[in-house]
Amino acid sequence: MSKKILLILGHPSSDSLCGHLADAYVEAALDSGSEVRQIRLGELAFDPILHEGYRKEQALEPDLRKAQEDIAWAEHLVFVYPTWWGAMPALLKGFIDRIFLPGFAFKYRENSQFWDRLLAGRSAHLLVTMDTPPWYYRWIFRMPGHQQMKRTILEFSGIKPVKVTSFGPVINASAERRASWTGLAAQFGRQAAGA
Question: CA-based diameter of the chain, in Å?
Answer without folding.
Answer: 56
